[in-house]
Specification:
Elements: E1 2-7, E2 21-26, E3 29-33, H1 39-45, E4 53-57, H2 63-66, H3 69-78, E5 85-89, H4 93-103, E6 112-116, H5 117-120, E7 123-126, E8 130-136, E9 144-150, H6 159-164, H7 171-177, E10 182-183, E11 189-190, E12 204-208, H8 215-221, E13 226-230, H9 238-244, H10 249-259, E14 264-267, H11 277-284, E15 290-292, E16 298-300
Parallel strand pairs: 3-4, 4-5, 5-6, 12-13, 13-14, 14-15
Antiparallel strand pairs: 1-2, 1-16, 2-3, 7-8, 8-9, 9-12, 10-11
This protein binds zinc ion (2 copies).
Length: 301
């Protein structure tokens, strides 16, 4: 998986930082977490393809996280998209899109499938290869964090052993790869573990947007290969963070520790911070494997 930070500021954009949006590219499919103003510009700049976009996951309906959405949806229309698009967020997201659509007298040639997290919660999508989870966070309005968790993949197929066991190449290989035992013409039963290596563990990426530290943030981030966490303020503004229901870099790092995440990338910085090294260093005293995101930072998971 590849993660690209499209916007890393909070509240207002700065000359260097756009508003929150993070793209995740996985096997030809692209997911977008939040869609701040200008997300589509960064999306293009990062060389991502609109046609691959399959899910947009909106954490909450604060302007900085959603003002880029209509422009992006309209660009998909201009690109003559026909594939459906899945759009998940709190109640009100569908209204926001539909009202804009009506007032702007625009129409989409593709289906937008709304997923209302206030109704649905929990598992947003359970597919063959991955699960998308959502969990409510603690912010000033209903807000969700997300995790994309790949399912474990079967181990590598040992061709030499398969041949030695006398399994003919063809559909029986597939059966074994999918974890089912097979019976050869002479009656011999071959079990999948005879020809498959150790299962390959799936990766987990968690996106924790605007919130106070909370249990659900830790749950989403548990064992994550990558935790993307808001860090609006430095540690000395803990009161401000509490008042505005955000996190400091220290609190974000503490969540990473509690969740036993493997790697932490901080984002959603207050526009007051120009130099992020100090923020990163402060978090790294608690959770060493920490980075501070800049726009267009790309991370391989
Ligand atoms: Zn925000
Ligand atoms: Zn917010």
């Amino acid at each position: 998986m590849r993660v690209v930070f499209l916007g890393t500021s909070s509240a207002t954009p700065t000359p260097r930082r756009f508003l929150p949006a993070v793209a995740l590219v996985r096997q030809g499919e692209t997911f977008l977490f939040d869609c701040g103003e200008g997300a589509q510009i960064r999306f293009r700049k990062a060389g991502l393809r609109f046609s691959r976009l399959s899910w947009i996951l909106i954490s909450h309906l604060h302007g900085d996280h959603v003002t880029g959405l209509m422009g992006l949806l309209m660009s998909l229309q201009m690109a003559e998209r026909v594939e459906p698009l899945d759009l998940a967020g709190p109640t009100g997201l569908a209204d926001y899109v539909l009202a804009n659509k009506r007032l702007l007298r625009t129409d989409f040639g593709y289906e937008v499938r709304f997923h209302d997290l206030d109704q649905q919660g929990g598992v947003v999508h359970d597919g063959a290869e991955y699960v998308i989870e959502a969990a409510p966070l603690e912010h000033r309005v209903p807000t969700y964090g997300f995790a994309l968790a790949e399912k474990d993949r079967p181990g590598t197929f040992d061709l030499a052993t398969a041949e030695a066991l006398g399994i003919p190449a063809g559909p029986l290989f597939g059966e074994l790869q999918q974890g089912r035992s097979i019976t050869l013409t002479d009656g011999t039963v071959v079990r999948p573990e005879q020809v498959l290596g150790e299962p390959r563990p799936g990766q987990r990426v968690a996106y924790v947007a605007d919130t106070r530290p909370c249990d659900n943030a830790v749950l989403l981030a548990r064992g994550a290969d990558l935790l993307i966490h808001e860090a609006t303020f430095a540690g000395d503004l803990a009161d401000e963070a509490r008042k505005k229901k955000h996190c400091t870099v220290v609190e974000a790092a503490e969540t990473a520790v509690k969740a036993q995440a493997k790697r932490l990338v901080l984002t959603h910085f207050s526009p007051r911070y120009l130099d992020l090294d100090a923020l990163r260093d402060e978090a790294a005293t608690i959770f060493p494997n920490t980075e501070a995101a800049v726009d267009l930072l790309t991370i391989e998971v």
